Amino acid sequence: MQVTHRFLIFLSALVWYGGGVGLAWKGSALLLEANSINQDGVWSILAPLLGVVIGVIKAKFIFIKNCRKNITRINQLLQPKPWQFFRLRFMFILLIAITVGTSLSSMAHGHYNFLLLVGVIDISVAVALLVSSFVYWNPTYIMLSMNKVVVENHASDVVGRAVYAACDISVGETLIQSSHIKELGRRDRYSMERDGKHILISEPGVIVNHSCSPNCKVVPNSAGAFDFIALKEISKGTEITFDYLSNEAEVTAFTDCCCGSARCRRTMSNTKC
Fold this sequence. Notes:
The structure is a single chain. By secondary structure, the protein is an alpha+beta fold. The protein has 2 domains: 5-137, no CATH class; 149-246, Beta-clip-like (Beta Complex). The chain has helices at residues 5-37, 43-76, 88-108, 112-132; strands spanning 149-153, 161-165, 174-177, 180-184, 192-194, 197-201, 209-210, 216-220, 226-230, 241-242. The strands form 4 sheets. A 3-stranded antiparallel sheet has the order 3-9-8, with no helix packed on it. Strands 4-6-5 form a 3-stranded antiparallel sheet, with no helix packed on it. Strands 1-2 form a two-stranded antiparallel ribbon. Helix 1 runs antiparallel to helix 2 (43-76), helix 1 packs antiparallel against helix 4 and helix 3 packs antiparallel against helix 4 (112-132). The radius of gyration is 25 Å and the shape is elongated. It starts with a helix and ends in a 31-residue tail after the last strand.
């Protein structure tokens, strides 16, 4: 069963927000119980503040980064399945964390210091989840799910994989919205040039092959990468291509062109089109 990337992102956001709200409720209950045991204790007042501060730090240095990585991973899935909203490793760790957290909460009842400790931990994680959740509303990281292309092995052993239209495409349609993976130190076989820098973009965009008579063009997008836009009507099953020289100041991965189009230049010059 195949689903959209947007559906997977929605499921991951549901887990993210659910965890934040659930832990905030549980942590608050533990701190309130601690306060009922010792209402004059200074830590009954400082504990919630400490949890918030630790949570903000966790969000900044850990949770925001992990949230972005997961959304990027989802957008790179070529045939997304319902269970892929998080990695299996993350789900396993989450199950362990829930089990341990439940056990600690049960053990803490009636013990002032233990209640404070577990309460601070719960509040800090809750704050980290809720603060980092802004990523789910940031269009830079959430790409539209197109499901208009598929990746298959190319007929030529030289080319390797290629991207094909999964349905009929109209002129001006966006086929692929890629995201920025990382900046590279120099131009290589898979890099694309943007703002004078060589970057690696997400699949399937990075797999799209060259043609001197392309059916797509690339346009910079808000995710620091490129959108692939149809230049002509594209029938289902047709390979998606773009002209590498429309984007690169020079192509160093290969010098001779063998795209096979009627307008093939036979060579990859360093003159930008």
